[in-house]
Amino acid sequence: MAHDPLPSWNDCAAKSTIIDFVARVTRAGGPDYVRPAERIATFDNDGTLWCEQPMQVQFFFGLARLEQFAMQVPDLRQRQPFKAFLEHDIRTIRKLGKAGFFEVAATTHAGMTEEDFDRHARNWLASTPHPQLGRPFTELTYRPQKELLSFLRVNGFKAFIVSSGDIDLIRAFAEEIYGVPREQVIGSSVKSRFEVRDERVVLAKLAAIHNFVDQEVKPQNIALHIGRRPIFAFGNSDADLPMLRYARTGPGPRLALLIHHDDADREFAYDRRFKVSPLSKALDKAGDYGITIVSMKRDWRIVFDDGFPPVEAPLAPEAGAPLDKPTRRLPEIH
Amino acid sequence: MAHDPLPSWNDCAAKSTIIDFVARVTRAGGPDYVRPAERIATFDNDGTLWCEQPMQVQFFFGLARLEQFAMQVPDLRQRQPFKAFLEHDIRTIRKLGKAGFFEVAATTHAGMTEEDFDRHARNWLASTPHPQLGRPFTELTYRPQKELLSFLRVNGFKAFIVSSGDIDLIRAFAEEIYGVPREQVIGSSVKSRFEVRDERVVLAKLAAIHNFVDQEVKPQNIALHIGRRPIFAFGNSDADLPMLRYARTGPGPRLALLIHHDDADREFAYDRRFKVSPLSKALDKAGDYGITIVSMKRDWRIVFDDGFPPVEAPLAPEAGAPLDKPTRRLPEIH
Fold first, then answer.
1. Is the pLDDT of residue B315 over 70?
2. Is the bond preceding A251 in cis, omega lying within 30 degrees of 0?
3. Is B168's CB within 8 Å of A126's CB?
4. What is the pLDDT of residues A65-86, one digit of tens each?
């Protein structure tokens, strides 16, 4: 092809499938044409857009805050589950389950306003390297996926992130790093309290979970936030299966993809590492559910994005059309 | 001015304030410039974008469904709160409170999938006239507000609806009628169940409230869905005050507006009709909170939009700029 919109992808079946899908849904007058308003794509974040090993970034973020607290309240070092976090006792942390883990990590920011939290998260991201890879977490995003996000965007798609990670932590970098604006991030969240401080309204975070967005809760929150079934979805774990099946089983053209973490040299091969792997079921069932597997090892020419050269917007077959003009009549009911 | 972007507004202080505000925030290099990603506007729906008298559209929508049920289960006519709905006993219905009222109206659609509900809502909207005004509810939208939505849109704003009404009922017409896509609607919602029916994933509505979006819950849901404090907000009742104050009290240029329902001839004058009016506090406090009051009687040349001529997109001072390109570095922290 004249211009390769996905240069960090090797020429593989998954790449052809993606390019063919986008061509079909954007071909005006074609049998698979989808109008821009319905070109909704959803992406998991941890393990799908950036690295989630040895622990999710959420862990390191919550830990940093816990360490600050532990300086003031040394007693915290003896109390579970904080002890496990402070000692990096992964075994005990895993026993909390994903929701319990999120609860500890997220509620350490209670009392912060939205604005406080955003500043805090940006500062932390700018100053904290990955403990093993030694680079900022925001450089451990997958370059092939950033090309894909860009390719979808110039083809009139709206891409959303749907993550079990903290919604406001993801918002602190998603726009700069992925080009995904804050209102296109769906994630787990804590409750907040409406307060008036010095005549100014603020929303202060509370130490209580509002919503943990995983498994079936992903499609439920897609329905709540977007109100449309995505035509394209990308995940990497069992927790994404409900979202992938939700996207895959609507009418018309559909594409669901799953990353296979099989690249021990360039990232981490961890799909079958644990006795009960949180990735096995998705890999086993992908064929049955019509989900396309992307092998990191085989299909990606480059893994991480160090930012050079910047991911460029590929040429669009057609300009991203604006939202259809409002019309007076409701459409025909079929 | 050469081209009037708000022709259904009389030349009034509110109109000048709006036009001046939009000019300031879009003037590149000016002191009040706001980049497109941050040009978030939020609108209440009932009484702000369309008529909410004698009862909110939600009532008539729930009632129609209850009447279907009552044909099959005649006993329903004797049981409260259904009896009050079926007898249009407004006094008793008001005693339920807004949340209780929503609960009855919304849970009548339990069992429907998202797609069922959308079809059902579109059919109902297309076939049901307003009981007093004899026109479809979708023609009882305010033309000056549709011009305003269009004016904001061409100036790079993203306008969201934030309503206590059913999120999916609003989505069934917001795109066609207001040009507001489904993902820019925030509203009250019921819980859903993830089900696999014939190999197909569906989300079935339950007879249980997930969230009732009113008062302080409006800013809380703006934070959840949008993740940005709006710079522009428009409401009409006490229930909108927290949202208007939230928008008004952020840094930089801000505009919050409140409709005064004082036009008995063309709509309904109902702001002070009840002993404890749900509109009085907002009107009383508007001055203190820096909220601009829009008098329907004085400031609007036309009220309802019958669709002719169609609301046209006014010319933009600058083209709606796309989302800023992702950059490698996180921005400076201030």
1. no
2. no
3. no
4. 999 989 998 898 998 888 998 9
